């Protein structure tokens, strides 16, 4: 037995702060403790001292100096390293957070500030009914974008009060399990695949009140677009350096919100971080499809991604108020709770036919043994000095992942003039349907940079077949791959949308249509055309998309966005080892691209498929990557923490392991192994 003197010598005073809402109860509690007292025992001792009857189950200790949670309650104070000078705060793990969604709507909900961001985002997506939460993450607005907004805000009028959707009482937000009807991985449709309207089971989840349908539609349906004034106030990147600022604020997925300095009621952005949208299905993904569509729409309006005038008009036609927004509003007025005309079993079977790969494949053995080839006359354009171009017609043969070209068809049995290996190359469309221009720009990696080659096709069909083959070859896949024919059809569909003719009805409509065309195109095109001209051109482009349903229009919009050369690229300013100047690094789902900051031209491309290993030297914050054929690169990141790029690479590799299993659960441990790092 220890004497009272010895016990007094071993104990010490620890000052604890309790984060509670009772004004008549003190918040500071000094307790006598010993080093072998475990955290759970400290909690019990503190609650007995507070003498307030309430549920303390969500409370935990936050160590202010060390910026960490003491969640392992079986650990002793000695094991944690807690001493008398430690500032411990007894506070709730779930706190209120404001999230700005891709559709620019703000939701307020209760989120775990003690879980990793990866797990917190997964819980948020359950609340919002978004499948595949691994594609999203949380973003803090970077200082560079905030400064620009503040300068503009000084001269602007007082902003209107923001309409916030409060989901703090939702089942998941309150710590209860989600309704199975909401976050369903079964084959039971929860959205109308045509209008995108939520099924009755989904509506009842949001609340029992009259606002349930409205809450549901804010997330799943499109609404009238922003005003030109709102667009003018938002941050618009002008250069690659500006675009790099957009990606500087991603939170670390391996750490909690509290550890990263996020405060209660702070506003963060929920965004699709990884541009690999897996298994999109209108019957289950109305919210997800709408939010992807909105993220794409704002990226185009704010010129975060470049597109041609022809492409901009297609995007405008697909999201114009009299088309997508009008359909959304009419959908809201329909009775969302009515029974679907399509039998659910039939719908599930037909959907299974569409979504499962291999539904309409030809003989599989034939695919493996007989690799198709393309052979045709194409024009080869090689850039010359003094802006002159040499254009010659050759006989081209596309076999496996290589293109060979010959002087003519008769000499195809001999040696080619040149053979181009397209593995790892950049494929850029150079198309103007109105001018009958169908070009393919190939940037092929060579020892000292990129070899630039242009191919000219004669018509849409030829272009679609050769373009699809080039895209697959760049990913080290041949035309025998099951995705070749769908890729050809996707390209033809996009070309068809661009190929419009002005009807007499469309020509007369601009006078009668009440629309603000400047809401549907980026500022660059607003300056180029007068309002009436722009309205007429959008109506002209609208002729080819006017019969689409709401969901189909959104999916086509997403598809067209994915077809843009810059799609899926996240930019960072880096300094490569041995270099004396800064470059831009583009991170995509399957490659890294080194880009000249001054000209915007790609210098070198490295494919993830050729990557052997990557690591980070945390002391000097340098990312080092080794590829096949003894290719080694190293760089430091100047526009963001190197952990963000490290997580991007690991995240994309993690996403490549997914499969279409409706019962699959995310392997969170594997994600953290690939992205966490060893700081």
TrEMBL record:
Residues 379-475 form the PH domain. It comes from Bombycilla garrulus (Bohemian waxwing). Belongs to the kindlin family. GO terms for biological process: cell-matrix adhesion; integrin-mediated signaling pathway. One of its GO terms (cellular component) is focal adhesion. Keywords: Cell adhesion. This is FERM1 protein. Residues 147-168 are annotated as: Disordered. InterPro entries: Band_41_domain, FERM_2, FERM_central, Kindlin/fermitin, Kindlin_2_N, PH-like_dom_sf, PH_domain, PH_Kindlin/fermitin. The gene is Fermt1. One of its GO terms (molecular function) is integrin binding. PANTHER family: FERMITIN 2-RELATED (PTHR16160), FERMITIN FAMILY HOMOLOG 1 (PTHR16160:SF12). The lineage of its organism: Eukaryota, Metazoa, Chordata, Craniata, Vertebrata.
């Amino acid at each position: 037995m220890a004497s009272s003197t010895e016990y007094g010598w071993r104990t010490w005073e620890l000052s604890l702060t309790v984060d509670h809402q009772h004004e008549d109860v003190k918040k500071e509690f000094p307790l006598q403790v010993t080093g072998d007292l475990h955290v759970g025992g400290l909690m019990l001792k503190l609650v007995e001292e507070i003498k307030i009857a309430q549920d303390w189950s969500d409370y935990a200790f936050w160590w202010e100096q060390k910026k960490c949670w003491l969640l392992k309650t079986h650990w002793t104070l000695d094991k944690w390293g807690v001493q008398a000078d430690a500032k411990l705060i007894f506070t709730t793990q779930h706190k209120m957070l404001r999230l700005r969604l891709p559709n620019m709507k703000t939701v307020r909900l209760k989120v775990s500030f003690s879980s990793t961001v990866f797990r917190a985002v997964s819980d948020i997506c359950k609340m919002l009914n978004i499948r595949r939460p691994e594609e999203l993450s949380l973003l803090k607005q970077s200082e560079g974008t905030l400064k620009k907004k503040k300068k503009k805000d000084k001269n602007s009028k007082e902003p209107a009060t923001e309409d916030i959707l409060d989901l703090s009482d939702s089942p998941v937000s309150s710590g209860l399990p989600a309704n199975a009807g909401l976050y369903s991985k079964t084959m039971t449709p929860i959205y109308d695949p045509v209008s995108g309207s939520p099924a009755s089971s989904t509506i009842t989840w949001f609340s029992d009140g009259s606002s349930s349908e409205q809450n549901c539609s804010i997330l799943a349906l499109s609404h009238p677009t922003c005003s030109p004034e709102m667009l003018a106030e938002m941050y618009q990147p002008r250069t690659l350096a500006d675009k790099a600022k957009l990606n500087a604020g991603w939170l670390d997925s391996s750490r909690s919100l509290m550890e990263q300095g996020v405060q209660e009621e702070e506003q963060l952005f929920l965004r699709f971080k990884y541009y690999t949208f897996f298994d999109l299905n209108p019957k289950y993904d109305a919210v997800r499809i709408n939010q992807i569509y909105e993220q794409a729409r704002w990226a185009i309006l704010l010129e975060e991604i470049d597109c041609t005038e022809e492409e901009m008009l297609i995007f405008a036609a697909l999201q114009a108020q009299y088309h997508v927004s009008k359909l959304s509003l009419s959908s809201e007025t329909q009775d969302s709770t009515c029974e679907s005309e399509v039998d659910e079993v039939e719908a599930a079977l037909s959907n299974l036919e569409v979504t499962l790969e291999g539904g309409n494949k030809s003989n599989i053995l034939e695919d493996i043994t007989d690799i198709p080839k393309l052979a045709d006359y194409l024009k080869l354009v090689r850039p010359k000095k003094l802006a002159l171009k040499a254009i010659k017609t050759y006989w081209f043969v596309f076999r496996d992942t290589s293109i060979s070209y010959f002087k003519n068809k008769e000499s195809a049995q001999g040696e080619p003039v040149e053979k181009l290996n397209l593995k790892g190359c950049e494929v850029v469309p150079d198309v103007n349907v109105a001018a009958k221009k169908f070009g393919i720009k190939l940037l092929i990696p060579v020892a000292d940079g990129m070899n630039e080659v242009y191919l000219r096709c004669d018509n849409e069909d030829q272009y679609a077949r050769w373009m699809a083959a080039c895209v697959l070859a760049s990913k080290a896949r041949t035309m025998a791959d099951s995705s070749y024919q769908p890729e050809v059809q996707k390209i033809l569909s996009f070309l068809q949308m661009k190929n419009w003719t002005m009807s007499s009805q469309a020509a007369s409509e601009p006078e009668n249509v009440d629309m603000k065309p400047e809401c549907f195109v980026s500022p660059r095109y607003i300056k180029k055309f007068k309002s009436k001209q722009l309205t007429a051109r959008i109506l002209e482009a609208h002729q080819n998309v006017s019969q689409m349903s709401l969901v189909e229009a959104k999916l086509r919009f997403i598809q067209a966005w994915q077809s843009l050369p810059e799609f899926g690229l996240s930019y960072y300013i880096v300094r490569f080892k041995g270099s004396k100047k800064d470059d831009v690094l583009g991170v995509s789902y399957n490659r890294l691209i080194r880009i000249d900051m001054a000209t915007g031209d790609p210098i070198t491309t490295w494919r993830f498929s050729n990557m052997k290993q990557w690591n980070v030297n945390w002391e000097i914050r340098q990312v080092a990557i080794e590829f096949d054929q003894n290719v080694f690169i190293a760089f430091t990141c100047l526009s963001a923490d190197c952990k963000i790029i490290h997580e991007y690479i690991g995240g994309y590799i993690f996403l490549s392991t997914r499969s279409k299993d409706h019962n699959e659960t995310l392997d969170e441990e594997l994600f953290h192994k690939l992205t966490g790092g060893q700081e």
